[in-house]
Amino acid sequence: xxxxxxxxxxxxxxxxxxxxxxxxxxxxxxxxxxxxxxxxxxxxxxxxxxxxxxxxxxxxxxxxxxxxxxxxxxxxxxxxxxxxxxxxxxxxxxxxxxxxxxxxxxxxxxxxxxxxxxxxxxxxxxxxxxxxxxxxxxxxxxxxxxxxxxxxxxxxxxxxxxxxxxxxxxxxxxxxxxxxxxxxxxxxxxxxxxxxxxxxxxxxxxxxxxxxxxxxxxxxxxxxxxxxx
Length: 229
Prior knowledge:
Layout: H1 5-22, E1 29-30, H2 32-48, H3 60-66, E2 71-82, H4 89-101, H5 104-110, E3 117-124, E4 130-140, E5 145-151, E6 157-161, E7 164-168, E8 173-178, E9 183-187, E10 201-202, E11 208-213, E12 219-224
Helix pairs in contact: 1-4
């Protein structure tokens, strides 16, 4: 059996999007530049008989950038299957996708919440019924967003964003540029019993977090634009 490779690639995209939807994530759209980067690398792996994410001495991000894809997030999955009997088109796609789903690092790439675009390539190795696949996820740089924190108090305020512990000094403004929306938590207490207080705020493009002091001396967070806007 000889699979129809273009149809196999489309089936991988279809199955990947179905998996993302099952996990309440948005679908990814085929991107021509990512597809070219994926195909070039799949062909290199087939010709060289090497198999790793850095077999050509570059990282997935390097290959995507060299192909002309400007990104703020990139992730790559590889797969290789051999069967002397050959493969049926959708069965080859299914085996590749199921293999990724059942591998934690590959599953993480498939379910990356911020990625929006995808390139997929499947190629046949010479002289055997061996097929290689490269799946390249991306989020374009154009989707980066910016938000600000204004500390209008007389205290240094600690906060956590994207698992990183940070602080902002009194009367300072900090601007963050991030790849995709996330959560930010402010620590408004101090001392041995310090703890993060208040809700976990969602970051979004253009949002400003203003830290102000109430008449009773407590720090309050004001959001602009407000949640209702």
